[in-house]
Design goal:
With 452 residues, the chain is mostly helical. Helix content is 84%, strand content 0%. The chain has one domain (10-444). Keywords: Cell membrane, Membrane, Transmembrane, Transmembrane helix, Transport.
């Protein structure tokens, strides 16, 4: 029986709160950035909500690939930090930045030069494609900036300093919100720019976020303050080690994000009101999921540091507590979504009665699966990746998305022609399957390995 008593586990909770609270706040702010755009653009109708939602699928895929790469990188940074081998951290971080710049450059080129072609694959509504193109051509300029912030932010958390990226996100949110108000609706003497105003606000906010993170790193965190020479002194052994662990995570996130994009495509083919309902649902859901991602990232750092220090039994015990907490938090968050969904949607969005009903039903469906989502977040992000068991986590996630979720989405939408919320329910069956397939690996403790 796992004890979650604070008195018996004081050291565990102190470390958990120190790492997770800033991460939760930062994720909440990042999600709020999307919510601010979503809500303000939502005042202009369902078409523009669908336009920004589909346009942001490109950004979504990029961030998940970056998340995969940085997850692999951070495993080593956390373990080197736990082992006190700080001299190797800069080599690992430099490798992560090279990867981030390469990936973001590709996505920038796609978003800037071929936006209408990409959006045309996802929606048959010409208005959605037109407005989405206006948005993505501006926002794509921020992709490279975001990639650099992402990499330094991940690394900062891995060495036990999650407050810097949190601070940058707070200021970025405030700037984005203020500029949205001014540029979308045309206040303080500015012209009303609509969806283009939202894109410009996001771009400026991302630039400010990067400036804050870099200035903080180079003033107070010398262990991460890399220079040009670090890019040319990366050891081949480091590349081999990190690549072996990181590549499965990158493929994992790439194929998972493509699966999510296929879901978005399916919802878009059901209709513009359906995709608007799902995009609103995803945005609101992301606000509540920050607790799950906070736990997941905290477990990754704490387990990685503990494994790096060679304390295998302690890491296994920590993992049991994280899993128990994930179930408890999932139940609480699921209830919170169910109770607050009508209030949130009615007060924040200007929707037709049909779109409102679709959104509420979809949110309630997601609430039912929240405990499974939380539990799987710990397994994938924390447990398996912290010990470098990334190949198994990749196979687990890709199998469930592409062999279960995607086929069920097509069957629900195009064969059974179900309403969008039933299609979402079918898709989320993969979360249940993932839990049961991941459980044997979890109980075997094969993941609990020291990598450095």
């Amino acid at each position: 029986m796992v004890s979650l008593s604070y008195k018996k586990n004081t050291a565990f909770y102190k470390m958990l709160f120190t790492i997770s609270i800033p991460i939760v706040i930062q994720n909440l702010i990042s999600s709020s950035l999307n919510l601010v755009d979503n809500v303000m653009i939502g005042q202009l109708g369902e078409t523009l909500i669908a336009s920004t939602g589909l346009a942001n699928q490109i950004f979504f895929i990029m961030t998940l690939i970056l998340f995969g790469g940085n997850s692999g990188i951070s495993i080593y940074i956390a373990q080197f930090w736990g082992k006190k081998e700080t001299d190797k951290i800069k080599s690992v971080l430099s490798l992560g930045l090279i990867f981030a710049l390469f990936v973001s450059l590709i996505f920038f080129m796609v978003g800037f030069f071929f936006p209408s072609q990409v959006l045309g694959l996802m929606s048959q509504d010409p208005e959605v494609v037109k407005y989405g193109t206006q948005y993505i051509q501006i926002v794509s300029i921020s992709y490279i900036i975001t990639a650099i912030s992402f990499t330094f932010g991940f690394s900062s958390r891995s060495v036990g300093n999650p407050k810097l990226p949190m601070k940058a996100s707070v200021i970025s949110l405030l700037i984005n919100t203020g500029l949205n108000y001014v540029l979308i609706f045309g206040h303080l003497g500015f012209e009303s720019m609509g969806i283009r105003g939202a894109a410009i606000a996001t771009l400026i906010a991302r630039v400010v976020e990067l400036i804050i993170i870099l200035s903080g790193i180079y003033r107070t965190m010398p262990v991460l303050a890399i220079s040009i020479k670090n890019f040319f002194t990366i050891e081949k052994e480091i590349v081999k080690k990190v690549g072996k662990t990181a590549l499965p995570v990158i493929f994992n996130e790439a194929f998972w994000s493509l699966g999510m994009t296929v879901y978005a495509l399916v919802y878009a083919r059901i209709g513009t009101e359906a995709v608007a309902a799902v995009m609103i649902t995803n945005t609101v859901n992301s606000i509540f999921m920050v607790v799950g991602f906070g736990l997941g990232n905290a477990s990754s750092v704490m387990l990685g540091n503990t494994l790096g220090a060679g304390e295998i039994p302690k890491a296994i015990e920590y993992n049991k507590r994280f899993l128990a907490l994930s179930i408890l938090c999932g139940i609480v968050i699921g209830l919170a979504i169910t109770l607050t969904a009508p209030l949130i949607v009615k007060n924040l969005y200007n929707l037709t009665e049909e779109s409102y009903a679709l959104t509420i039903h979809t949110l309630k469906v997601l609430a039912l699966f929240m405990s499974f989502k939380f539990y799987n977040t710990i397994i994938i992000i924390g447990t398996l990746r912290s010990g470098g068991d990334t190949l198994y986590s990749m196979l687990l996630e890709i199998t469930c998305v592409w062999l279960i979720g995607v086929p069920l989405a097509f069957i629900g939408a195009f064969v059974l022609k179900l309403p969008v919320y039933y299609v979402v329910a079918l898709v989320n069956i993969e979360e249940i399957v993932k839990l049961f397939l991941g459980l044997p690996r979890l109980l075997s403790n094969k993941w609990a390995k020291r990598l450095v």
